[in-house]
Design goal:
The complex is a heterodimer. Chain A is an all-alpha fold. Chain A contains 4 helices and no strands. In chain A, helix 1 packs antiparallel against helix 2. The longest helix of chain A has 37 residues. The radius of gyration of chain A is 20 Å and the shape is elongated. Chain A starts with a helix and ends with a helix. Chain B folds into 2 domains: 114 residues; 196 residues, no CATH class. Chain B is 71% helix and 1% strand. Chain B has 14 helices and 2 strands; from the N terminus they run H-H-H-H-H-H-H-H-E-H-H-H-H-H-E-H. In chain B, helix 7 packs across helix 8 and helix 8 packs parallel to helix 13. The chains are: A mainly alpha, B mainly alpha. Chains A and B meet through helix 1, helix 2 and helix 3 of A and helix 1, helix 2, helix 3, helix 4 and helix 7 of B.
Amino acid sequence: MSQWILYAASAAATVAIAGVGAFVAVEPVRRLLSINIAYSGVFMAFVALARRTTSGEADPVPHALVLTGIVVSVSSTALALSLTRRLVRATERSGRDSSSSPDEREA
Amino acid sequence: MTFDWLLDATVAAALPLVAWTVARSVALSRAIVLFIAFGLLSALAWTRLGAIDVALVEASVGAGLSGALVMSALSWANLDEATVARRSVIARAFVAAAIALCLGAVLLGVPDPSEGLLGDVSANLGDAGVHQPITAVLMSYRGYDTLFELVVLISAALTIGAAKSARLEARPGSDLLRALADALLPLCIVLSAYFLWRGSNAPGGAFQGGAVLAGGVLVSTLAERLRRPRLTVWWIRAALVLGPASFLLVGMPRFVEGAPFLEYGPQSASRAIFAIELGSLVTIALVLASFFPGVGPLETAPDASSERTRGHR
């Protein structure tokens, strides 16, 4: 069995498991972890498919796409985390003082 | 040969297994540590597949920086909610297996020996000005992609700045951490310059260099040797747009003369790509470093206090 087939199968399993994990997760941070792992699985599929060449040298275009993808995935993770943090603080605040209405606080 | 196959099979089997344990761990801290382990495992897998550039970025950004980011979530995430429903495991495993089978059938159904775009990339490498095919793809053939990726990064950094996350609480200073930061930051600067310079004919480039530099800055921020870059300062804003700006400045002159957008010309291509990579490195390092919340005493955090007063008005 050639090497890329092993990793392509691994990528398919990883995306499936992490995808289901992302859907069933209750907590936002946990969901983010699973989404990130699903990203890695997609990248793995790209890198594995780039390896189908006969010369042994991999196709550089998927590699460049994955490089771009990793950096964008980190920025999306950071953005999601900062919004989640904001949400957690807002929920804590509304739990602390229930005297004022939520609309006033958000304004 | 057999040993190679065994190693590949182990890594390939470990990846979905770790993904499964991340989804199933009860404690969030455990899930996060396993997530970082997953990043390092995939970096190993990519080294096995000959994607050294990708492995470098994954190890520094995917496992390192993402890991630090999600770990910082441990300080504020609501851990009481961290419950994993134990029921219907079989149903979920069934759904996951069905998805995996469909994806696997599609992935393995592609034509097997396939050269992809390797021939086209190699044939035009002479005009690109660099000898490393991936750098040529990123900076020359697909320059549009990289230009707008930098714009995406900057938008994310600005949005995070607007969301005003409060600082992390500073622990009593540790001399060991400070000494480590002081030793690591110069090393990271040298390493990132090396990656940038080597990027034209070996694995490396603006992404790898920027990620390593951001890592060094991050450790120094955590050790309170540096402050988090403040996006309100004018020169930090100028440095933030250095990447896209250098792309446009280098790409414009030939565009005005009638050449396609972002074409550098064979004579000056090598220098043009280096200038763009230098600008991109600054942008990438600054954006990645600004993703992390600052560290400082909670009382003096201006963002948090101003928000609190506004909230009670």
